[in-house]
């Protein structure tokens, strides 16, 4: 019996000698706990040793050998010339090593089961290179494949093929970023950069642009919208580099159908397109306010259309190549109309022109002027039939007066000039020379009774004697007298002190003259039948001065009115009031140029200086700023752009005195619509505004280079958006009141990412954090830190699941090593605490008991996969102290152990009840 006990004890010592631990794990303080092996303390015949092996096929191995197979470090030269140097496990290449192929290819990295597995670098003999993940000998996972000619693919692989998300870059610099399937580009979203600098971002189908995308051309043009078979097709938006914008349908890459084209100048076309050109029916609104509606051919108005001018004038008729050409009708806002032929936007050919006061012309036009034969009916009923040149009566014609009488003869510059016959209503006639509508030169005057005088006339007056006439009211005249009345030139002094000096006809001031009023006023100019009629100058005693046209004794026509205080008005008058186009200049130099009606301002352009010092220059409608204009504020701010009813409404640029600028849409003096706000060295915002505040989609560029693209509400980043950081990385997700809040994805500059919830810019709640090296954390966050319950997966395959605090393992948790062994216990600030734990090893061995310094210490139970079980004391990972070792076959050993070996007295109990005690 003692001999048998000694034999059993010796066997046990061979199987369960001193127990060691594997090298410590390189993450945190999570050293891997190595299960004690019964074979460790005693030499065994299959221990690793250096050796050399030659195989039947000619292969040759030099290195470590265990149990007759390659195991450990070594070098294997294959019969075909391939050569592997690295680690082996159970006769197979496993671990890390370098495999040099006979053809010059080289692989360096991880191996498993004799094939590349894990991360590695494969260098091809032709210069190509792959670096990344392998699985079962194939490129599988994330990697970078660089071809010798310069082509490069970076992304996901599966079974040696591109599979998943990746970026393919051509030698010329063009690239595609998107989804691959079995080496083929597939549908989905992607990015393609071309060698000429063009960039496509959007959806692909079978490798071609299809779906929704954005194409940025090398020249700066940008198309956003739908694509079919690699071309813009469907609905889209094309923004030209020069600033023009087209919105609408596309066919084979070009605008086609009904769309909208907004020019950089402010012009807007809405209508049909064919092959990229405005062709068909459409509406063109010019920035200046003109509007054309009708057909277009090759981008130009052509055919029968309507052109409404900014001022209200309307043309309806033929267009050729964008010009009014052919027949048409033009109606002016002041009541004038022209109906007839046009050429080059001018009256040209036969036409009829009618003015509101009854003036009518029917006849020939040339380059916008009356030219040729025509009939002119005046407002007073006079009718001229004859020839015209440069817009006025010229040549020969007949003028019939409504009051009776006719003139038939020559005309120059619209006046009776040359030889002619004047037949008076009373039967008298004058035949002879005329100058400026008057008898002048040799002529014959025949009275109704048949008597006639042939002689010389001057300015309409027969040269005949002079004298003085005294009237019953005390007035007196001195001058030419004919037939007992003043005819010719003379002076008429009225009883009240007024004095007239000038021409007379039939006793009345008529022609040129000077009228000096008793109060000091003076009029010098034309008279007709004792009324101021024609051109003249009226200088009032109080400093007022008018020079211009008179009609029926009033300022009517064109004139200049100067006030005593320095103000002046130059333009059209009617019945002593401003009426028509004119310019009013204030004493301070500010002015308004535009249209007046009965003394009131209407439309036009001008300058207005306000009481606070602000100054406006631009268009006016109904006396208010309207159209294009510039408003310079007293503060130094300047607005330049559109106005409507006195308000900044439309497109414009606002420049603040401190250097800030806003360029875009306005409404009621506020930023409203699309615009760009620039605050130098602070920020730049491009997007939509609502009532002066950022609202809707926009892009905000910060001074530090960060860029936000997304939604805004009430001036703050709110809603979905993307924030790209200047130093690298980006956030894509929800924002609230300017901070990252809600669900989003944060990508850091080193490639690490976080996907989950945010609160006030911090990671908060559930999320997944992926480190650049492949490590991931999935679980709870508080104030941006890992805190609460989570799972931490290391890049090497190790995992920790349990409690976290302040980014460290803290509390109850389970740590699983890459080989499958586990530690379940308590952590504090990343370190395992002394105490008890449960450890499950990769081979199935299980330990429950005390732990100290990461090793079994104190009382515990260790159960091997084959059922062998040890219960008792441990120290530094080995059996130490009283313990019971029960084998899988039922044999039980009770002893005191030291450093893994039984010492002193032992008790062995066999399944049949036999009990052996020995020392």
List keywords for this structure.
mainly beta; 919 residues; 66% strand; elongated; 1 helix; 41-stranded antiparallel β-sheet; 40-stranded antiparallel β-sheet
Layout of strands and helices, then pairs:
Elements: H1 2-15, E1 49-54, E2 60-66, E3 69-77, E4 83-89, E5 92-100, E6 106-112, E7 115-123, E8 129-135, E9 138-146, E10 152-158, E11 161-169, E12 175-181, E13 184-185, E14 188-193, E15 199-205, E16 208-216, E17 222-228, E18 231-239, E19 245-251, E20 254-255, E21 257-262, E22 268-274, E23 277-285, E24 291-297, E25 300-301, E26 303-308, E27 314-320, E28 323-331, E29 337-343, E30 346-354, E31 360-366, E32 369-377, E33 383-389, E34 392-400, E35 406-412, E36 415-423, E37 429-435, E38 438-446, E39 452-458, E40 461-462, E41 466-470, E42 476-482, E43 485-493, E44 499-505, E45 508-516, E46 522-528, E47 531-539, E48 545-551, E49 554-562, E50 568-574, E51 577-585, E52 591-597, E53 600-609, E54 615-621, E55 624-632, E56 638-644, E57 647-655, E58 661-667, E59 670-679, E60 683-690, E61 693-702, E62 707-713, E63 716-724, E64 729-736, E65 739-748, E66 753-759, E67 762-770, E68 776-782, E69 785-793, E70 799-805, E71 808-816, E72 822-828, E73 831-832, E74 835-840, E75 846-852, E76 855-863, E77 869-875, E78 878-886, E79 892-898, ...
Antiparallel strand pairs: 1-2, 2-3, 3-4, 4-5, 5-6, 6-7, 7-8, 8-9, 9-10, 10-11, 11-12, 12-13, 12-14, 14-15, 15-16, 16-17, 17-18, 18-19, 19-20, 19-21, 21-22, 22-23, 23-24, 24-25, 24-26, 26-27, 27-28, 28-29, 29-30, 30-31, 31-32, 32-33, 33-34, 34-35, 35-36, 36-37, 37-38, 38-39, 39-40, 41-42, ...
């Amino acid at each position: 019996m003692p001999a048998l006990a000694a034999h059993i004890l010796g066997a046990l010592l061979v199987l369960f000698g001193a127990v060691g631990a594997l090298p410590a794990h390189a993450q945190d303080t999570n050293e891997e706990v190595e299960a004690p092996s019964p074979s460790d303390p005693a030499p065994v015949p299959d221990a690793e040793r250096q050796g050399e092996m030659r195989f039947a096929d000619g292969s040759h191995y030099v290195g470590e050998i265990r149990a007759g197979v390659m195991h450990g470090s070594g070098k294997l030269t294959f019969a075909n010339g391939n050569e592997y140097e690295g680690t082996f496990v159970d006769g197979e290449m496993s671990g890390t090593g370098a495999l040099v192929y006979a053809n010059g290819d080289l692989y360096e990295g991880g191996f498993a089961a004799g094939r590349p597995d894990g991360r590695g670098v494969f260098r091809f003999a032709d210069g190509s290179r792959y670096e990344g993940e392998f699985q079962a000998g194939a490129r599988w996972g994330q990697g970078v494949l660089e071809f010798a000619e310069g082509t490069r693919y970076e992304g996901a692989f599966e079974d040696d093929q591109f599979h998943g998300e990746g970026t393919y870059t051509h030698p010329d610099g063009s690239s595609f970023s998107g989804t691959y399937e079995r080496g083929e580009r597939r549908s989905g979203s992607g990015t393609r950069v071309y060698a000429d600098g063009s960039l496509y971002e959007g959806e692909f189908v079978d490798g071609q642009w299809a779906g929704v995308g954005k194409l940025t051309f090398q020249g700066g043009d940008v198309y956003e919208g739908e694509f079919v078979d690699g071309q813009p097709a469907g609905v889209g938006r094309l923004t030209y580099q020069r600033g023009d914008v087209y919105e609408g349908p596309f066919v084979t890459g070009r605008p086609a159908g009904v769309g909208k084209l907004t020019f950089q100048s402010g012009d807007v076309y809405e209508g049909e397109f064919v092959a990229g050109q405005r062709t068909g029916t459409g509406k063109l609104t010019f920035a200046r306010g003109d509007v054309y509606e009708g057909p277009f051919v090759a981008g130009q108005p052509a055919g029968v259309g309507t052109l409404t001018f900014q001022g209200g004038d309307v043309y309806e008729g033929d267009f050729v190549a964008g010009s009014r050409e052919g027949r048409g009708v033009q109606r002016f806002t002041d009541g004038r109309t022209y109906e007839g032929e046009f050429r080059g936007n001018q009256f040209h050919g036969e036409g009829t022109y009618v003015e509101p006061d009854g003036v009518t012309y029917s006849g020939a036009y040339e380059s916008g002027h009356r030219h040729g034969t025509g009939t002119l009916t005046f407002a007073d009923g006079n009718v001229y039939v004859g020839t015209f040149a440069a817009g006025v009566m010229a040549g020969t014609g007949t003028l019939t007066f409504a009051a009776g009488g006719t003139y038939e003869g020559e005309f120059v510059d619209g006046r009776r000039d040359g030889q002619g016959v004047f037949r008076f209503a009373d039967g008298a006639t004058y035949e002879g020379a005329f100058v400026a509508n008057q008898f002048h030169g040799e002529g014959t005057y025949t009275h109704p009774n048949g008597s006639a005088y042939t002689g010389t006339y001057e300015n309409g007056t027969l040269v005949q004697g002079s004298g003085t006439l005294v009237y019953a009211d005390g007035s007196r005249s001195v001058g030419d007298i004919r037939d007992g009345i003043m005819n010719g030139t003379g002076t008429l002094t009225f009883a009240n002190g007024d004095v007239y000096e000038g021409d007379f006809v039939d006793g009345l001031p008529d022609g040129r003259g000077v009228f000096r009023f008793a109060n000091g006023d003076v009029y010098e100019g034309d008279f007709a039948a004792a009324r101021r009629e024609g051109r003249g100058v009226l200088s009032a005693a109080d400093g007022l001065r008018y020079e211009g046209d008179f009609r029926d004794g009033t300022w009517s026509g064109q004139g200049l009115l100067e006030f005593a205080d320095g103000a002046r008005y130059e333009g059209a008058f009617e019945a002593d009031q401003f009426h028509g186009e004119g310019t009013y200049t204030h004493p301070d130099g500010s002015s308004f140029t535009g249209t007046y009606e009965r003394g009131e301002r209407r439309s036009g352009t001008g300058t207005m200086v306000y009481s606070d010092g602000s100054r406006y220059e631009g268009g006016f409608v109904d006396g208010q700023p309207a159209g294009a204009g510039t408003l310079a504020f007293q503060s130094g701010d300047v607005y330049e752009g559109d106005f409507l009813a006195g308000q900044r409404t439309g497109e414009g640029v606002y420049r603040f005195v401190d250097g800030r600028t806003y360029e875009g849409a306005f409404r009621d003096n506020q930023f409203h619509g699309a615009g760009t706000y620039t605050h130098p060295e602070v920020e730049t915002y491009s997007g939509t505004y609502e009532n002066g505040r950022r609202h809707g989609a926009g892009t905000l560029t910060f001074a530090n280079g960060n860029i936000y693209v997304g939604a805004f509400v009430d001036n703050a980043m709110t809603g979905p958006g993307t924030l790209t950081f200047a130093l690298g990385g980006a956030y894509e997700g929800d924002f609230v009141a300017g901070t990252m809040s809600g669900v989003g994805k944060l990508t850091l500059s080193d490639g690490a990412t976080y996907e989950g919830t945010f609160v006030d810019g911090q990671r908060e709640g559930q999320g997944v954090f992926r480190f650049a090296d492949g490590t991931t954390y999935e679980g709870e966050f508080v104030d941006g830190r890992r805190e609460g319950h989570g799972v931490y997966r290391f890049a090497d395959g190790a995992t920790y699941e349990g409690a976290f605090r302040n980014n460290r393992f803290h509390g109850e948790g389970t740590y699983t090593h890459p080989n499958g062994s586990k530690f379940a216990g308590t952590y504090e600030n990343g370190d395992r605490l002394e105490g008890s734990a449960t450890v499950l090893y990769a081979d199935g061995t299980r330990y429950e008991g005390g732990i100290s310094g990461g090793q079994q210490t104190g009382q515990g139970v260790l159960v091997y996969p084959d059922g062998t079980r040890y219960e008792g004391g441990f120290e530094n990972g080995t059996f130490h102290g009283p313990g019971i070792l029960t084998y899988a076959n039922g044999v039980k050993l009770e002893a005191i152990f030291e450093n893994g070996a039984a010492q002193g007295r032992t008790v062995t109990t066999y399944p049949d009840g036999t009990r052996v005690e020995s020392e």
